[in-house]
Amino acid sequence: MPPTTSQARRDRIVHLATTTGLASVEELSQLFDVTPSTIRRDLARLTTEGRLARTYGGAMALSAHPEASLRQRTGEAYEEKRAIAQWAARQVEPGETLLLDAGTTVGALAHELRGAKELTIATTGLTALHALADADGVDVECLGGTLRPLSQGFVGPLTEAALEHMSFDRVFLGADGVTVDRGICEADLRQTRLKELMARRADRVYVLAHGAKLGRAPFHAWAKLREDWTLVTDASAPDAQIRAFEASGVRVEIAPPGGT
Questions:
Q1: Rounded to two decimals, what is the model's pTM?
Q2: Contact 243, 220 (CB under 8 A)
């Protein structure tokens, strides 16, 4: 019998995700005896909440790995993220224009840049905005759009349109996971599309990902990067993963512990 409330139906969809995997909109519509548009709204809401992850082709990848909120991820791998952020900050030169992604590691980089001079920084992330709001030597541009509560980042057509009017010396991207063959893994196709667009607008592309994220694919949305990008990770990164990225032509930088 179909659930009697919208919340019960969405909970049932998530339960099916953990047991049966993929299901199409049409199949879910028939199962719950509701219209396809109702199912699409359910799936959109569950994706925004981080309980599901989309794939291409009209199907839904019903994920058993809910997306953690930015608050939940703040304390995760703190020292590793700090080391990566400090390494990245040392690459930045006065007078540059930077593009910062949303996320905790890129947010840590924004904190490291608070004392910089003569920088212009555009960002899609609230964490970076908060860190740089009172930085005297930094001109801050906010690429607004639709706010994803879980990632505290802006996505969507307004964000993408703003990017078309800017170019950057460097872009620093975050990732839920990153693999040699597929690129950056995220929970939402809007995120991965935006990351691809961000990479195209910058001369130099950096992906900031601590060691536990290498080879990790928790979701089903991917950003494929151009060939000349740099992976910045930390000393915990597995040697096999480092060798695999280097063999594929990716430049890999290992941030030393303690920012030395």
A1: 0.74
A2: no
